[in-house]
Amino acid sequence: MAKNKNGNNTLAQNRKAHHEYFIDEVYETGIVLVGTEVKSIRAGKANLKDSYAQVRNGEVFVYNMHISPYEQGNIFNKDPLRERKLLLHKDQISTLLGYTSQKGYTLVPISLYLKKGKVKMALGVARGKHNYDKRHTIAEKAAKRDIDRQMKERYR
């Protein structure tokens, strides 16, 4: 498990989120899980690749988040792709509802991590990128890498 900037343990990341979307805001959410799901997430068996979140009836749910069944869980295991409720304050949910009602905004899970023994999710308010935006981002990363390489060579 890698340490996050805030000293949190990162359990799973959606690496494509920053490539596919512009992330405007990030919210820290709790997530409703059963015991075997928590054990499976702690073992690193969670996947956020194609997951997304939606506001429905004043509550936020995450869909397509895959948590593999816990091997010793037997009858207590749940469906790996079931929808899971996210825990947010009412004012945060109304803000998210305002964002998602606008055209082009979506809610994307960015990462799962531990904070004080609890599993938390970083949920991003995102706008989709076009292909030219992705190429621009890749070019910026390459330029920054070249500059860093040159600076390292110069100061040796």
Question: What can be said about this structure in brief?
Answer:
The protein is α+β, with helices and mostly antiparallel strands. It is built from four helices and ten strands.
What this model shows, in words?
- With 156 residues, the chain is an alpha+beta fold.
- The protein has 4 helices and 10 strands.
- It has helices spanning 17-20, 35-42, 90-101, 131-154; strands spanning 2-3, 9-13, 21-31, 46-47, 52-56, 59-63, 66-67, 84-87, 105-115, 118-128.
- An 8-stranded antiparallel sheet has the order 1-2-9-10-3-8-6-5. The chain has a two-stranded antiparallel sheet with strand order 4-7.
- It is globular and about 60 Å long.
- The model has no long low-confidence stretch (mean pLDDT 82).
Lay out the secondary structure.
Blueprint: E1 2-3, E2 9-13, H1 17-20, E3 21-31, H2 35-42, E4 46-47, E5 52-56, E6 59-63, E7 66-67, E8 84-87, H3 90-101, E9 105-115, E10 118-128, H4 131-154
Antiparallel strand pairs: 1-2, 2-9, 3-8, 3-10, 4-7, 5-6, 6-8, 9-10
Q: What key phrases describe this protein's structure?
A:
156 residues, eight-stranded antiparallel sheet, 4 helices, alpha+beta
Strand content: 35-45%
Mean pLDDT: 82
3D shape: globular
Terminal CA distance: 33 Å
Strand tally is 10
Spatial strand sequence of the major β-sheet: 1-2-9-10-3-8-6-5
What's the helix count? 4
